[in-house]
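Bit of a strange request maybe. I'm writing a small parser for structure token strings and I need a real example to test against, not something I typed by hand. Could someone generate the tokens for this chain?
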Amino acid sequence: MASRIEDYGFIGDMKGSALVSRHADIDWLCVPRFDSEACLAALLGRDEHGRWALRPTSRVLETRQRYRGDTLVLETELECDEGVVRIVDFMTPTSDRSDVVRIVEGVRGAVTLEMVLDVRFGYGASLPWIRSYDRQVTLVAGPDSMHLRASVPLTSTRTRVSSIFTIRAGEQASFVATWAASDCAAPPPLDAGRALQETERFWLEWAGRCTYRGKWRDAVVRSLLTLKALTYAPTGGIVAAPTTSLPEEIGGVRNWDYRFCWLRDATLTLDALMIGGYSDEARAWRDWIARTVLGDLSRLQIMYGLAGERRLTEFELDWLPGYEESRPVRVGNGAWNQFQLDVYGETLSCLYQARRAGLSALEEAWDIAHELLERIESIWQKPDEGIWEVRGGGLRHFTHSKVMAWVAIDRAIRLIEEFGVGGERGANDLAHLRALRERIHEDVCTRAWNEGIGAFAQSYGSDALDASVLIIPHCGFLPADDPRMLSTVRAIEKRLVRGGFVQRYSTELGLDGLPGDESPFLACSFWLADNYAFQGRIAEAEELFERLLAIQNHLGLLAEEYDPNAGRQIGNFPQAFSHLALIFTANAIETCRAKKTTRAQPAPQPAHP
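Reply from user aminoacidic:
Good idea to test on real output. This should exercise your parser:
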């Protein structure tokens, strides 16, 4: 069976990725792309669906796992009756290849281990044809092949590759698995030791460029490293998570594929990268967005593929039992063609934030802005499916969507006023845009505010709460200390906080058209901490932030949600949105604390003559 979600480490090469358990099992591997068909899929099933294990043959007494400093080189120490071994796992971001490298180091004693590689291409469905050579085995099925080379003898059967070997203190053994298209020759052998040095140097140099120097530097740097590792290097697109169908409720049906790029994450991603000082990565993300949305902007989607692919057809893999029997297992995401107003605001906000952060002007900025403005003006009054991509709940006038429609107009105005985007044509549009911005603002304040619940409701005319309204101060729609926001925060504290963390909305109301429940959504908890900080409640913001840091796994990674009753992370993992929110909140608390301290300082007294 798969390990608990929080018991995995994450490695990647900025093209594909893998999850490694505390017991050194690789239970998930997607190469050469994040969205490729997994060739190790035991995460969503069992050994028979693909696993790469390295296990001592004697009793394991203790396991320890850590990243090697500020890198994505993962070390797992296994202490057993015979001694201690260290397994070093990584993927190589410095080449165009797709390699997974495993180095076994003897630390103490003489430990005998068994290596078992069960490759199953096509998400565990395809048993490969296995051919053996001298210390190399090739596994082929359809378009895929995997070439395993090792420094110890390998044995192959019809279904698997294995090896039993002994490592003494100071000795090493290496295994390199290289993916290649099946119609291509095997890539040349990789020097595992040199690859380790190059990989470690790459990540250390990248992390060393981080300009954030605040109190929570370790957590921020780990989040930035995770974000970098979730970047598809050939295009600059950033995936929401490297996994599919890790459930929002164990045994439930809320299981989605997150190996795509969401426009909703656009501004927060850019902000997080700039907080870390990573302007090149921010520019690559901005440019990916521009390339992806250009064309028919009237058909703007909420998500796209890694290279900007538009059709993300969803289907189910009925041969996989799912993580802890959570069915169905889905590939693709049917929400790609939903109608959601907020993506217009996110796109224009990202363009504005990029200029504000000092990135160079985008040649197509006005073309994008102008067409999006025409579109948003014609559709902002329509109901949509909302930020949470509800299925079966029906179209509604979601408050968050209307606020983001206001953001679209506001950021276009700022682009024109502050950066002269659109030239004379843009300047001529200002009066009309300002009037439209005010009209949307008035509409939201009038129709989204619910006096009965004392809060901005989930949607117009609703009595339901939704944590997405916590972004209202983030985007400048209203200040955090506006009486309506103060009241909204109190209502959310009272009705949406479970076990100290914030739910997206109340699932028991049946508003999303899905059976079952879900746990608190970590990004929403970070948003509540932001609101505390914006309101000057620094101690409460820090307390909540520290509570969130305390549920990171042993490697500093976060999933999408957290079940406070079971005390475990759930949902796709690691989740970019959670780590983006962590970076933003750390910076927000420190910025607001500094402002509060400055305001509290006594005014300087004039010097006596």
